[in-house]
Structure prediction request, 385 residues.
Amino acid sequence: MPAALRNDTFLRACLRQPTSYTPLWLMRQAGRYLPEYRATRARAGSFMGLATDPGYATEVTLQPLERYALDAAILFSDILTVPDAMGLGLSFAEGEGPRFAHPLRDEAAVAALQVPDMQRLRYVFDAVTSIRRALDGRVPLIGFSGSPWTLACYMVEGAGSDDYRLVKSMLYARPDLLHRILDINAQAVAAYLNAQIDAGAQAVMVFDSWGGVLADGAFQRFSLAYTRRVVAALQREKEGQRIPVIVFTKGGGPWLDEIAGGGADVVGLDWTMGLGRARAAVGSRVALQGNLDPNVLFAPPEAVAREAVAVLDAFGPPQRADGTWDGHVFNLGHGISQHTPPEHVAALVEAVHAHSRRQRAGVQVDPALPGNLIPSRDGPGAARS
Prediction:
């Protein structure tokens, strides 16, 4: 039986329930900017050696929580584990990023593509269970996957891309082939995330990292439609607790209204859209996550704190005049850079927690509840584990 959750602030913010401060976690919070991560990766021998070993994955997932008062942990893994399980042959060359040995370049390869046996991803689910046990109720655990479109980009291109020439050529010349890839991916991603939830993930996130490279119209047909299929297929409750779903589309600001209507509980934003404008656009439909420019973290700590305050002020106090609450989860607008000074992250965490508490000055809190929270209309147990 998992330990009772002692800090449910992140889950409550995802569900637009009252919180005594704005919760914070960072995309890629377990990563190369931390010297302890680099040491563990060296022991593992490679990135894949790290990601496929539940013990190492647990170790690095918890490392940032030992340094910083973060409000959620995120599974240490990679978005490309799913196409790797499909037989595309994932590898990571030092300094070159991910590469597939068998990219999808012709009709025969696309026709042969199948939803993988989830047992081929057992190492991921074992890591989720191990991490959840090691957290011992400290904070919630987030599981994740790439979106069907983002996975397709890598699967067709064979690696990262600057212009997405191959996948976009397929999109315009043979949309039937791309739709087949996306259909298989949507089924696989839904099954993958549901298995993570079964293993112990308390929230899940879909990374549509390359949705923003699409033209208007193409985004709706080839990215958003399949992300919606994934979200619709997810289990949203486990053992009586709500499982929040986050969707993040980098460059998705122009389609915010449509993304917010896609069924997720939270919409992540990059740094190109003001949170105040986004909050006004989505209303009470979803919570928002984001959206500090990751490069702010290269500035001195006092500048980091100033910019964090600006993001919080752009969202504004989360309690509305009528007493209802809007949810905000503080995060970066994309993943943290490997070159980030760790002490600058400490300044960020301190500033977010301190200023967001000041924003709630005068709001009644009950110190007996987890996270010093007043009950929501759904009851204090609605987002607890």
